[in-house]
Amino acid sequence: MAIVFAALSGLIFGLGLILSGMANPAKVTGFLDLTGVWDPSLALVMAGAIAVALPLFRLARRRQNAVSGDALQWPQSRQIDAPLVIGALIFGAGWGLAGICPGPALVLLGAGLPQGLLFVASMLAGMGLFGLVRRRITRT
């Protein structure tokens, strides 16, 4: 049953990205370009997402299990450390340069667009490189 909920959630998320324009790199870079022709419409999308998600997360925090019956898994750490900050900076820089983040990249990949393939391949390469560097650092 969990796979059904996961597939349905992914489908709804992907459709939301398409309808909101967040799968369009030009719209995203237009939002991030504060010195050019700024497009504030993505701020409304984000505000709408927060307005929907916040009460649902508060409700979920009071539950032991998800609707599917699986145990809810929450982050164990609340610490803001160097790896978190560095990762957030790299993520933000990539999002700003490409106008794509992982969710929309999968939508673009599913649509067969070359920038989706390039972004997902680069993202996977970066994840692999991170794994190699992290293993090397923890060994020494």
UniProtKB/TrEMBL annotation:
Q: Domain of life of the organism in this record?
A: Bacteria
Transmembrane ranges, per UniProt, are 41-60, 80-100, 106-133
Keywords attached to this Swiss-Prot or TrEMBL record, sorted alphabetically, are: Membrane, Transmembrane, Transmembrane helix
One Pfam family linked to the record: DUF6691
What is this protein's record name? YeeE/YedE family protein
